[in-house]
Each structure stands twice: as C-alpha cells, then as structure tokens.
Write a structure and sequence with these properties.
By secondary structure, the chain is an alpha+beta fold. The protein contains 14 helices and 15 strands.
C-alpha cells in the first residue's frame, strides 16, 4: 500500500510538471483605456461686469472720459481673452471704503484700488490682481541673490534686499548666518526717507518680524540718503555697512561698479574701480516682504470671477489696453491713467498680508 501511495504521488507530480510546461492560450493585451479628449473650454460668459475705479487724482473730464470710453474697450479686450461680457459698466467710487462696501454688497463686481487703502479696510473681498514695478524674482534662497540674475522671471511688486557693503564689518556680516540684533545694531545703516516702501518701510517690517518688534528707529547708527544710487555710492565709499537695495538698481550699477575710476561714457556714471562684481561686493543678507501699488478686488458672491480664469483674462486685458501697439495711443494713455502705469499680475495668496502687518506696525490701522 505504501508503494502504491508513493506511485500515486509521483504520478500527480509528473502531471503537474507537464501542465507547467504547456503553453497557455495567448490572450490579447488589454486595450488601452480610451481617454476622452477634453473639449475646448468654452468662453466664460457674463451678463454684466460692473467695474469701479478710485478718482486717483484724475481731473473730472478725464474721469468722465473713462466712464464713457472704457466699457467698450474693456469688453473688447476681455473678448480677446475668451471672456464674453454682454455689458460692461464703469463707475467712479467716492472713496475706497465706499467701493469696498459696494463690492461686499454686490453692486460692484470688480474694483481697482490702491493696495494700501484696500489693506486698511476690514474686509475679506478676494484680490484678483496686484500691480507694481517689474522685479526680478529669485525666490527665498539668499544665495540666489548673490549672483547676477539670469533668465529669472519678472513679477510685479516691491521687494528690498538687505545688502552688506564691502567694508570690513559688512564683509564679516555677509559671511555669517542668523545675524543677531546686537550685530545689526553695531552696523552703520543707510536707508531712504520714511515714505519709501522698499528703502525704509519694508526694512522696518523685516526688522520687526525678525527681531522682536525692533525697527530702524531702534538702531544706533542710521543715515538717510536721497536715492538707491546714493546708497550704492555710500557703500562703495565705505560710509555704511548695511542698507536696503532694489535689484534693478544693482543691475544698473553692475558695469559701473567694476569700471575704471573714470567716466563711463555709456552710463554717464563714474567708474568705481572695484575688482569683484557688484553681487559679490554687495551681497544680500536678508529679504523683505512683497508690497504692491494697486489691487483689483472682486465681489465675493461672484464665483465665476474668483476661480482664477477670469483673473488671468483680466490681467491680459489690462496689459493689452495699456499697450499703444494694441490699441490707439489715446486709449492706451486713458487706460494707463485709470489702471496705473505699473504692471499687473495675478495676485498671490495672502497678497495684502504684509501690507496689513506694516500698517499695524506703523499704527495706521
């Protein structure tokens, strides 16, 4: 019986092995799933778009012209961005507070307002666009700001670099990380007048955020200069150790910084005769927050205006309106007067937070 059992087991094993050696019937590979080709996005359609502007120092006849001419211009520019609006209405607000209230109540759909004035209002209206001079955006890594910007994106807004001068103490600070308040207080600072955002006010907020509420007023040695150009010259002459700087200004001075100490005929500035590049000699040791000139806010109950698509279209439309190559010169000048002459971009998240903190620090809200 044991032999018989053993033979049965062996027979079963052979059968299994034979089965493993057989070819299984070939099956066709599963057909790839058919992915639906997304249909072309249909134009965004709006029955009405009520746009309001502040007076902005414009004369009454210029404001009347804006109310009369801009609706059709804006409707056409938006249509070119796949936003179809049956009717555009333009009004002039009596004050920022009144316009914000109109946004909240829904009697105005989009409003263009000074960023600081909007930040002073206690409101949660969504901001679509923000404007400012084009600025080299190289991120938050300080090392990226210590070399010449190449192919970096330009974005609208203000931001100051806190730079060290090529003095003995300035060089010492540039080599350190996590500067202490004592080290900053020991430095000779150069800044611009108190009304300058990137030359003074943004530095105040940077100091307050990082050094327990201290500001420029708490530093021992601060000298006020008239311009960023004057700050570059003061740093070159060894008068200051730390100072705020605009990246465009640093770019403007790059050639002159290393030119021989004689007149640079191309830039009409005296050569400063430094051996290193301006980015090596004036390295960034800090970065302030972003600030903006104007903001375009939307009524919170108009969801079709706040999903991002309309903001991108509005930014492109405003840019086109201000370009005389696209529209006639008179229309372009009118658009520049009303929207402002700086560049607009889709607003980043929490776009006015830094401005609100600055105004709180200054005690104006």
């Amino acid at each position: 019986m044991k032999k018989l059992s053993l033979l049965l087991v062996l027979a079963m094993l052979l059968a299994l092995l034979a089965g493993c050696g057989r070819k299984t019937p070939e099956t066709a590979d599963p057909e790839p799933e058919q992915t639906e080709t997304p249909e072309e996005q249909e134009p965004l359609r709006l029955d009405t778009l009520r746009v309001e502007f502040g007076k902005g120092g414009l004369a009454s006849d210029r404001l009347a012209e804006a109310v009369r001419v801009l609706p059709e211009l804006l409707r056409t520019a938006l249509a070119e961005q796949e936003v179809t609006v049956e009717e555009v209405k333009v009004t002039i607000g009596s004050s920022t507070a009144a316009t914000v209230q109109a946004l909240e109540e829904g009697s105005v759909d989009v409003a263009f307002l000074p960023a600081e004035e909007l930040a002073r209002c206690e409101t949660a209206v969504p901001v679509l666009l923000a404007s400012g001079p084009l600025f080299w955006d190289q991120g938050e890594d300080l090392s990226a700001w210590r070399r010449e910007p190449k192919e970096e994106p330009l974005v609208p807004g203000y931001r100051a670099l806190i730079c060290a001068a090529p003095t003995e103490y300035g060089k010492n600070l540039a080599e350190r990380e996590g500067l202490s308040w004592t080290e900053l207080d020991h430095a000779r600072w150069g800044v611009l007048e108190e009304d300058s955002i990137s030359g003074h006010r943004a530095v105040d907020l940077w100091l307050a955020d990082n050094y327990e509420g201290n500001t420029l007023a708490d530093l021992a040695d601060v000298t006020v200069y008239d311009s960023f150009d004057d700050l570059v010259l003061a740093a070159s002459d060894g008068e200051i150790d730390l100072f705020p700087m605009d990246e465009d200004v640093r770019l403007d001075w790059a050639e002159t910084w290393t030119a021989p100490t004689q007149e640079n005929k191309e830039q009409k500035k005296p050569g400063l005769g430094h051996e290193n590049t301006i980015w090596e000699d004036l390295p960034a040791v800090g970065l302030t927050e972003w600030f903006y000139d104007m903001a375009a806010a939307a009524a919170p109950d108009r969801e079709e205006l706040t999903d991002g698509r309309f903001a991108a279209a509005l930014e492109a439309a405003v840019r086109a309106l201000g370009a005389s190559a696209t529209y006639d010169r008179d229309a372009a000048l009118l658009a520049q007067d009303v929207f402002g002459r700086e560049h607009y971009g889709v607003a980043p998240e929490s776009v006015l937070d830094a401005t609100r903190r600055l105004l709180t620090l200054e005690g104006t809200i």
